[in-house]
Structures are given as structure tokens and as C-alpha cells.
Design brief:
Structural class: mainly alpha
Distance between the termini: 41 Å
Shape: globular
Strand content: under 5%
Radius of gyration: 24 Å
């Protein structure tokens, strides 16, 4: 199943660069003996491509269009270029090691993977730059500022015009989306909450254009929503965080995946508890009704935390399961302990 459609990638990139159709097809610096020599294709052809009326075009036309927009003339989803199938297994293992904080193991496997990658291929170089930056930062070898610089350098390998585009408008591939998520984290660790918030909003807007297939859409959407939810928790903006959680849980139900449900449940309970403590949950109610509402809400929160705990265990997310257990014991110290 294709990740993106040709019409979407061309239309979004041209829009992000604020180019007219005529500007995109125009060839500059070429001989001007015939009109067709100065155009990649006709305006009508480009319009039909963007409207999905043309699904297959000549490779030379496609290549020229992509290069005119500063993009690699290849399948947009192309990730790593390898000759040894074992390389893709190593890539998956490296990802798992990083998720579980096993950085030394990830580093060893990255060194084993590197010789398997075809050299001088931009996406291979980009992948290595990003993973080396992540591992260096996680192991205390880079400051958050230097980490951000390296991530941006890696992104510019395949999106050289990154500094002048609206990221909400540009179609990104898997490698690039991983880097964008890391950039959001870098802003977080630098304490730049305004930058982080604006960046995550743009990322959310980008993904919600649904230019990718459902499998990628839901994963990338969850990243943006969890980031925004957690940031709103830190800012004590409870209603905003709860709304991101609600949307996230609905998305997971819709696509029938566990995804980040346990993270959203955690944030939901945390926000509800803050609202109760700040008197926001039952504002204006009578003392009797207030007591009943709080009792029912805390019972619901307890149930949600238990669900979150077992979902995180099922996902193998040890860090989050311990975090959930800690919150559970803080809010419900007299209840049955979680295993």
C-alpha cells in the first residue's frame, strides 16, 4: 500500500513553497528555441497531476518537478537504501533499544548497521545523523542546544529549504517525521515551551491533512497529541490537555490500536485530580452534591489508572508502567496495590 499519493506530494510541496503552477514548470537557463523546451510540462498537465487525474507520469518529468521543489527525485517514503535485508532488522532493534533506554546496545547495533547502508545516499546519511545525535544526547555527550542543531542539519539533508517552509504544509516521510518529533523534544528539554507549543501545533496540523496512509497517520497523530497533552499539563491548562487526551483516545478506538491510550489516560487522571484540588471540577455545586461528584470522579479516575497500568504492561513500556503505578499510589494510597 502506498504511503502517499503523487497528487498530494506535488500539491503540498508547491503550496508550502508558495509557488504558482507556472513557476514550478518553468525551466530557467535553458535554450529558448521552443516554448516546450522551457517547461517541465504544461500547466494543464500539472493541474491534472495535482487533482489526481494523472497517476503515472514520465520519470524525467517527475524528477524535474521534484528537483525544482528541492526534493529528492525518488519515492517519498524511501527510508534506508540497503543491500542486506538484515539491515532492516537491525534498524527495528535499534529503535526498540532506544525506546527502552538501552543506549549502549543501540550504539553497538548502529555501528554494525552502518557498513550495510549504501554510502552517499541522503536518507541513509540522515538516519545515521539523527540516531547518533539521539544517542549522544541521551548519554550526556551533547547539550540540548547542540542536539537541536544536529537534528536540524540532518533534516536539511532531504529538506534543504526547511528554514523557509511552513512545516504544516510540507509532506514528510518517516525519517523526517522521527526527526521532527525529536526537535519537539529538544525544545522541551531546553525549556522553550512557547517554541515547543507552536512547533507541536504545526506538527498536528501537518498530520491532520492526512496525506499519508492510515497506519502512518495514526502513529504520527499520536505523537503530536501526546506532546501537546503533556505540555498543557505542565502549563496547568487542564481543559486543553483533556481535549487532546479525548481526541487521542477516540483515534485509538477508531483505528483499534493500543497506541498511546495509557499515556492519555494518565494525563486525563492527572488533570482531573488537579481540577478537584483547585475546586474547578465542582465549582458552584452544593456541598452534598460536590462530595458525591468528587467520589464518583475519583472512582472513575482509579479505574482509568488501572486500565492505563495494564495497557502499559501489555505494551512492554516499563518506564510508563512504573510512572502510572507511582501516580496510582499517590492518589489512592489506601486501595489495593497494583502488581
Amino acid at each position: 500500500m502506498a504511503v502517499y499519493r503523487l497528487s498530494t506530494t506535488v500539491r503540498m510541496r508547491r503550496g508550502a513553497l508558495r509557488m504558482t503552477r507556472l513557476e514550478l514548470i518553468e525551466i530557467r537557463g535553458e535554450a529558448e528555441t521552443e516554448a516546450e523546451d522551457n517547461e517541465i510540462c504544461s500547466v494543464d498537465t500539472l493541474k491534472r497531476i495535482e487533482n489526481g487525474k494523472v497517476t503515472r507520469i514520465k520519470i524525467e518529468v517527475y524528477t524535474k518537478i521534484m528537483r525544482k521543489m528541492g526534493a529528492l527525485p525518488e519515492r517519498i517514503y524511501a527510508s534506508l537504501f540497503v543491500m542486506n535485508p538484515q539491515a532492516l532488522n537491525l534498524k527495528a532493534e535499534i529503535h526498540i533499544h532506544i525506546c527502552f533506554g538501552e543506549y549502549e546496545q543501540a550504539e553497538k547495533k548502529l555501528k554494525k548497521l552502518e557498513p550495510m547502508l549504501i554510502p552517499d545516499y541522503p536518507r541513509n546519511q540522515q538516519y545515521l545523523m539523527e540516531k547518533k545525535a539521539v544517542l549522544a544526547y541521551k548519554q550526556g555527550e551533547l547539550t540540548a542546544e547542540k542536539y537541536l542543531e544536529r537534528l536540524l542539519d540532518a533534516l536539511r539533508l532531504t529538506v534543504p529549504m526547511f528554514d523557509r517552509i511552513d512545516i504544516a504544509e510540507w509532506p514528510f516521510n518517516e525519517n523526517e517525521m522521527d526527526i521532527l518529533s525529536d526537535i519537539g523534544n529538544a525544545y522541551h528539554w531546553m525549556g522553550k515551551r512557547d517554541e515547543e507549543f507552536q512547533f507541536l501545533l504545526k506538527l498536528k496540523e501537518n498530520v491532520e491533512k492526512k496525506y499519508m496512509n492510515p497506519a502512518h497517520y495514526v502513529v504520527w497523530h499520536m505523537r503530536a497529541l501526546t506532546g501537546l497533552s503533556q505540555l498543557m499539563c505542565m502549563e496547568n491548562k487542564h481543559e486543553e490537555s483533556l481535549e487532546y487526551c479525548r481526541v487521542g483516545i477516540e483515534e485509538c478506538k477508531k483505528w483499534r490500536i493500543l497506541g498511546s491510550v495509557y499515556r492519555f489516560l494518565y494525563d486525563t487522571v492527572w488533570n482531573r485530580e488537579q481540577q478537584i484540588r483547585e475546586g474547578l471540577f465542582t465549582d458552584g455545586e452544593s456541598p452534598e452534591k460536590e462530595e458525591l461528584l468528587i467520589k464518583n470522579e475519583r472512582a472513575s479516575c482509579r479505574k482509568q489508572l488501572v486500565q492505563a497500568y495494564f495497557l502499559s504492561v501489555a505494551q512492554g513500556d516499563v518506564h510508563q508502567s512504573e510512572r502510572i503505578k507511582e501516580l496510582y499510589e499517590k492518589f489512592f494510597p489506601n486501595d489495593a496495590k497494583l502488581p
